[in-house]
Design a protein that fits this description.
Elements lengths: L17 E6 L8 H9 L4 E6 L8 H10 L5 H7 L6 E5 L10 H8 L3 E7 L1 H14 L3 E3 L5 E2 L3 H15 L11 H16 L1
Parallel strand pairs: 1-2, 1-4, 2-3, 4-5, 4-6
Helix pairs in contact: 2-3, 5-6
Length: about 190
Amino acid sequence: MPAKNDDLDGNVPDQCSVALVLVDVINDMEFEGLRRRAKDAGVPVIYVNDNFGKWRSDFRQQLGHVLEDGVRGEPVAKLLKPDEQDYFVLKPKHSGFYHTQLDLLIDYLRVRTIVMAGFATDMCVLFTASDAYLRDLDIIVPPDCSASATVEHHRNALEHMSRVLHVKTISSTEIDFTALSESSRADEQHAAL
């Protein structure tokens, strides 16, 4: 990894113990409240989205397609579109970590806790949570900010993540990004002693 510079892009913190990871959200639901609260607390937002098999595209091109080509996901994408301060990772498979730079970005930002939301709870969110668990990250998946094709699939995936991956499944309204950041910093300082 190259030497750490002081300013990755000039807009967001280059270190934060918490990150909001939005998996495949450029298609169906609104998480504006969760996203806004994360940003207000200085927590970086990372969009991890499927590349839809388009190997010559980039995230901006994917976003442009959803926003400009009259597809069904356009109204939702308009609500969820990232701003200039957000990070982007395109993924080729279910997990946001599999063959992507998400690992490097998480390490670079010194993230210890991820709050994850997106689609589908029983597929891409589950696989990304599993890989996050293998990386010893603390994981929160608010049930009201993820969805599956059926309610049963959604519930089963959340139960599995909670039981096997030790994922906290609390409502998005219960998440205090400032407290999470402060708690992670305190844990880091305690570990350094």
